[in-house]
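Weekly modeling sync, notes
Attendees: S.R. (lead), two postdocs, one rotation student

Agenda item 3: backlog of single-chain predictions. S.R. asked that every request posted to the team notebook include the full sequence so nobody has to chase files. The rotation student volunteered to paste the first one in as an example of the format we agreed on. Action items at the bottom.

Example entry:
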Amino acid sequence: MRVADYQPPLTFLARWREQTPSVAIKISPAVAEGEIPATAEAEFISVGGELKECVLWWGELHSGVNRRATQLPSGASMGWRPLSAPVPITPPRAYLYEPDPAILRAGLVEQLAEELGAAKISADIAYLTHDTAVPTPWARCFALEAWFPFQLKRLRHYLREQGIGRVTIKKRGSPLDVDWLQRQLRLKGGREAILFLTQVGGGGRVGGQSRVVGIWVYWYSGVF
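Predicted structure, as returned to the notebook:
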């Protein structure tokens, strides 16, 4: 993951560029932000929703932006640009968007929010929310059934009341152990749901706890 450990190390690039100014190098997408050369365009590429690689571009191959996200097989690509206004932070609305990992790694979450007309649910959490399901190749879109502050008894009661017998748990910004929570829910019923454990608001946990932001019962993926 450290470019100094590459064979040859990335610093060797300076020799190549003396003869060939336009260069492209494929590196690990897990590279630390501080190790990306300031003169390069870093393009993060995902395939089927999984982050696969980073390509550094110089010279005539540089598109003019310092960060880019590209998604395959759709071919969608988004380059960094300044925001026209700060992205608002609101409580969860009817839909939640889980951005593609290339968007996350390229630091383009707020740019995606502006493109969708969406808001963030927290200053520090990369989930977006919207009143409508806007088509995009850049995020999975989940329809919200309910959301409330996390309390195990309340959550267990709600799931049983709704006849939900199986859940997929996603978490971001929550300290709870997913395997422990699965065991504690003691589910019964024929319905399936996706459960998000995350934070709401300006950043910190409300009342020292995570919030359950949503019981989600279906989702759209990719282009609608």
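Discussion: group reviewed the output briefly. The chain is about 15% helix and 35% strand.
Action items: rotation student to repeat for the remaining queue; S.R. to check formatting next week.
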